[in-house]
Design a protein that fits this description.
mainly alpha; two-stranded antiparallel sheet; 315 residues; two-stranded antiparallel ribbon; 10 helices; disordered C terminus
Length: 315
């Protein structure tokens, strides 16, 4: 992050609008999770779970950023001394997702609580915090897409002005809305059996939305050549979640024809999305059409992964 809006300075600390948004999101997320888990596992346990998840998310986001941007850190950010300076920014979305999940998992293991239930609650908190984190990008130079040159579209919600007074697509707003929808779905899924379904849904829905929305960004996203880190991480986590569910079905000997259809849809979806991502830079086909096709395919993949075709009584 850079060029963040500073609200006020208190001694050596600068309070930014983005930091305030993120703090508010985390506080509201903890309150919601405490409400959802007030009976199971209880408020005190939820607060401990939240502390473990938040710590894991921060560490994971920082570690993944430092690993992927190591050359840049060593050359341009003053070397290894940058890593412990957490207040200077430098985090990744999927580092937070993986770190937060690891924190919740460790807490569940140590306290001998149901792992699926703990991950379900952590997922709700993560989605809620993400809403405010994405919205807070309005006060930074992040979360913006292509420049909008046509004056007819130079207005909210189609475009916003950057700090340089250029009109650009407000990708951050679309990501905040996507996180809101995901949070609503996860709250609705709380308590569903088997435990862990909400956490799986979080990975699937975040991946589906992140792949399409990340492709719209034109800011300081991390990439390796033409491959964007968040898109790659989204695809990998979705794939692992899907095949983990298939493995669980096979182990339980409840394989049904719908599982074969889902596997085929998922495989074809991966191929199509990869082809479209290549075509976005090289094809003569209109990019807007390609984006719509990609979004449609991702929606089908998300549906196929979320609904396993079994009756509630079989779950």
């Amino acid at each position: 992050m850079n060029e963040m809006t500073i609200l006020f300075i208190a001694g050596p600390f600068s309070v930014t609008a983005f930091g305030l948004c993120l703090t508010l999101g985390v506080v509201l997320a903890v309150c919601m999770v405490a409400f959802l888990g007030r009976k199971d596992p209880g408020v005190n346990a939820v607060l401990s779970l939240s502390a473990a998840t938040i710590a894991g998310a921060m560490l994971g986001a920082r570690i993944l950023y430092c690993l992927t941007m190591l050359d840049f850190i060593l050359v341009d950010l003053g070397g290894m001394g940058f890593m412990p300076r957490l207040w200077e920014g430098g985090y990744t979305l999927y580092g937070a997702v993986l770190g937060g999940g690891a924190g919740a998992l460790i807490y569940a293991r140590v306290t001998k609580r149901n792992i699926g239930r703990m991950l379900d609650l952590a997922a709700v908190g993560g989605a809620l915090a993400l809403i405010f984190e994405r919205a807070g990008e309005y006060f930074t130079t992040q979360g913006l897409g292509e420049y909008i040159m046509d004056e007819r579209w130079q207005r909210f919600p189609f475009a916003v002005q950057s700090v340089y007074e250029d009109w650009q697509i407000p990708v951050f707003m679309y990501e905040a809305l996507a996180a809101l929808v995901i949070a609503i779905v996860l709250v609705w899924m709380q308590g569903r059996k088997p435990a862990g379904r909400a956490a799986e849904a979080f990975i699937i829905l975040l991946g589906v939305t992140q792949i399409i929305l990340e492709s719209l960004r034109e800011d300081e996203f991390i990439r390796f050549g033409f491959v964007r880190l968040n898109m790659l991480a989204a695809a990998i986590t979705m794939g692992l979640t899907f095949f983990w569910r298939v493995r669980r079905m096979l182990k339980a000997r409840k394989w049904i024809p719908w599982q074969i259809i889902r596997l085929v849809v998922f495989a074809l979806g991966i191929v199509l999305v990869i082809l479209i991502e290549f075509a976005l830079d090289k094809s003569s086909i209109d990019d807007t059409l390609l984006y719509f096709v990609m979004a449609g395919m991702l929606g089908v993949m998300g549906f196929a992964m979320l609904f396993d075709g079994r009756k509630k009584t079989d779950q």
